[in-house]
Amino acid sequence: xxxxxxxxxxxxxxxxxxxxxxxxxxxxxxxxxxxxxxxxxxxxxxxxxxxxxxxxxxxxxxxxxxxxxxxxxxxxxxxxxxxxxxxxxxxxxxxxxxxxxxxxxxxxxxxxxxxxxxxxxxxxxxxxxxxxxxxxxxxxxxxxxxxxxxxxxxxxxxxxxxxxxxxxxxxxxxxxxxxxxxxxxxxxxxxxxxxxxxxxxxxxxxxxxxxxxxxxxxxxxxxxxxxxxxxxxxxxxxxxxxxxxxxxxxxxxxxxxxxxxxxxxxxxxxxxxxxxxxxxxxxxxxxxxxxxxxxxxxxxxxxxxxxxxxxxxxxxxxxxxxxxxxxxxxxxxxxxxxxxxxxxxxxxxxxxxxxxxxxxxxxxxxxxxxxxxxxxxxxxxxxxxxxxxxxxxxxxxxxxxxxxxxxx
Length: 408
Description:
This protein has a domain of about 90 residues. About 35% of the residues lie in helices and about 20% in strands. It has 14 helices and 13 strands. It has an eight-stranded mixed β-sheet, sandwiched between helices.
């Protein structure tokens, strides 16, 4: 059965037109990125707050596909303070990983591009705007100043090279100038011991398939920490691990953070991990931040209906339910996002005013910010009338860890 034009179907002619337009746009970005001898004035800047290690300021990262422009990160602003852990939560496809890859300048180019905004990285008093930093400078920053623990250690490690050789390569690339192979291997062994691998010399001579999932995850962490970075991006660091190994990996990250005074960006779906690890929490939905604040703000005073839905869907010890709550509906098409609140069509607390433009940020306290019409002064009465009391109460009790009986 054929779909009519306008029902999600693109003709070959339309697809060619979009591809041609995208090539023009991406070629301009690539031309700018591949320039040589870029003056420092174009990428050296200043931090808004010297107590921050990283500042995301109105970041827009898009993917130019044959079906249209996917606005994976659409105006994200938050800070990563020195020595703190910032947890980023949200459904799959909300832009968490793309935000972190933008900081590393690892978006899949030429389709993936940082379109606008700034990412300010503080490296010993010298502040880089990552969005404009040339490739050769970025090569020095990766691993030394900021490093990433990729999800899925099964696929992050090269199966045809021994563990020691892979960690050696990281150290040789970033800190190997003037060092002998023996010195580099000694540093590799120290990195493996730092992450709790007892038989470090034996493990260094093994291939990835000879290690368990937990051991492979430790190796990936060792590679990320080998050059003592100030910022660690942990992208789903406990994916596919059993709960015992998860606890060990989280204890390891917490211990390492205190040892080297690093800042951590922790990306995960697991609210339990966020509650245990994070000092600050950023809740993302469809490429935008819908709520952010301290861990106490988010877990004890959740404000956005999406955050409340995430809390209500979290299983809690002692809560007897026939089935777990799930947020109804689906995420909107990322190619042509609506002008109104992206969560409106799934929201159980929506009001008549939600048909308006995307809501601006409302500051509930010095640390707590939410983007929702429910907190506009002129809509508070209607918000009280339309609130889903059961969902609200369940989410807040679940956030506080209280026992709830009966259906959610």
